[in-house]
Amino acid sequence: MKKLLLTLAIALAALPAAADEGMWLPSLISSRIKDMRTKGFRLTADDIYSINRASMKDAVVLFGGGCTGEIVSAEGLLLTNHHCGYDAIASHSTVEHDYLTYGFWARTRAEELPNERLNVRILVRMEEVTDRLAAGEEPKAIIEAAQAEGTGYRASIEQMYYGTQQFLFVYEQFDDVRLVGTPPSSIGKFGGDTDNWIWPRHTGDFSVFRIYASKENKPAAYSPDNVPYRPRRHFTVSTHGIGEGDFTMIYGFPGNTQEYILSDAVAYVAERSDPAKIAIRTGRLDLISAAQESDPALRIFYAARHASIANAWKKWQGEVLGIGRKRTVETKRDYEQRFAAWAAGQTEYADVVPQLKAEYARIVDPYFAREITSETLATLPARYTDAERAETFFARREPTERALFRYAFRQYADRCPAAYRIEEFDEGVAACGSPEAYADRLFDGVWSGDDTAPADRLKEGIKRVQKQIVDELGTANLRNLNSRRLNELYTAYIRGLRAWDTRRAFFPDANLTLRVAYGSVSGYEYADGEYHKPLTTLDGIIAKDNPAIYDYDIPQSLRDLYAAKDYGRWGIDVGDRRTVPVCFLATNHTTGGNSGSPVLNARGELVGINFDRTWRSTMSDIEFDPSICRNIAVDIRYVLFVIDRIGGAGYLLDEMTLR
Hints:
Layout: H1 2-13, H2 33-38, H3 45-48, E1 60-63, E2 67-71, E3 77-80, H4 86-91, H5 99-102, E4 104-105, E5 113-114, E6 120-128, H6 130-134, H7 139-147, E7 153-160, E8 165-174, E9 176-182, H8 185-188, H9 192-195, E10 207-213, E11 227-228, E12 247-252, H10 263-294, H11 296-301, H12 303-326, H13 328-343, H14 352-375, H15 386-389, H16 394-415, H17 423-432, H18 435-448, H19 453-473, H20 484-500, E13 515-520, E14 524-527, E15 530-532, E16 535-537, H21 538-544, H22 556-564, E17 572-574, E18 577-579, E19 581-586, E20 598-600, E21 606-613, E22 631-635, H23 636-646, H24 651-654
Antiparallel strand pairs: 1-2, 1-6, 2-3, 3-10, 4-9, 5-9, 6-8, 7-8, 9-10, 10-11, 12-13, 12-20, 14-15, 16-19, 17-18, 19-22, 20-21, 21-22
């Protein structure tokens, strides 16, 4: 009997639902509360999501259309990542006022900096509309009716499980969002591209904004008359800290996962798409890095572009490694074969896997051509603006911009499948003798502004071929290797999987809608005999400090505080030393879009800000491995320490609720 009970316990522990995998819809979170409570959560489903009273959802924002942020005061104070606020910070930076390098802290509300085209959205409600759509209601009518419910309302209908279910999301959009503070890049981007996606990590990846509204507390365009937004809910900030094994919860807007794709798609990602894109971006980064090292003005100008290119570039490298280590292609093939054996006698599902594989074979080349075009020719400007030409250092950009043109044209020529190459491109190469010579011809006209017609013709060719590919694939929604027919087949496939694999905890793929993920603070075994602890401290920053390297040259004030051990209330004892916590690891399932998400403890208090994953965790977009997949967060105590002791902006802490 004891042996039987032990075997049963091991089997139950191995169930997929027991792993910290999943991105759950908050309106349906009641189905997960029991599991959350077994892992330490102390609140209710209504505390997470409610439309009848203030709940956590009212303190979470979609920041800038691609990140997450959290409201931490009754006056609209907002925390997100430094890299999420990077474009806004860079737009206010000049050589004379280099906020990227030295940081920025508004000392009064009047000094908070407005940001054109930056907005945040707060979810008002979500509701399933599958039956309404099936009954014949038009999506446009549903969306328009929802948007008419309030000032600044925006709405969309999003598919879950490849269209098996559809949900209406209604948001309140605020367009007046101002920069309040940011640490210097040597804190907010400490380690730069070298440390990106890597653990141990010591990056203070945060920035501070404030939401403004009309005097009636409604969304409004920027105006000096606007006042700080009064939210329904803001997060309490915990200064108690976290330890290994503690419950954690992520509440944010994950962008894109592909948990249910076939092995064919995984093989395409790991063996064809990612390697090609990594190689192309390596060359672009080399050219931009050389320019940045040569000129301080160019360093600032190219900072945001470099960061944008490098982020996915390094992520893809980790994804390829993770997929290979986990043998995901082989595992999925076995899973598909077992499903196909079950489905063989069922009319609805018997042929779905073979049809999916046939469709992948049909679309793989045009999709690859589209990706290569997007990574090369589509990255180049067709003209430079008069404002750019007026810049004093415009001429100093010329060698880099030309080199990027030449490199992109060569990469396109070498990599794009011939059947989908742009006619205008081939004609231009034939006339000029080489891709580089053709690039020079177009660049000379675009750079001077004297003759943009050849570039315009190429741009029209790009549009035409891209449209041809979209028509061939049957859908314009091509974020992943996809087609209209694939979506139709996946609808049946997912329905079949849920009928067959009843022990699996199915959750809808991420699609930049609000989700809950939960797990615990946890280290992991990186390699045989090498365990990575889940917490880093200021000691690690000092060990990496190097004034000769831009990304590791920390502020002198941080060195001074460390030397004096003058940490104030933010210091902690680790063994026999006094230090400051910096970052921690947890097992929450995250992806792009979760950047800036609040990391909450069992009481729903803010303990960190999510900003990254470990390198081999990037494959969690396709397969989540609980033994090694970890998200990385900046410890909220380090955020408070930097605001208080480095920024001298302790007044911001006065408006937060600290516990």
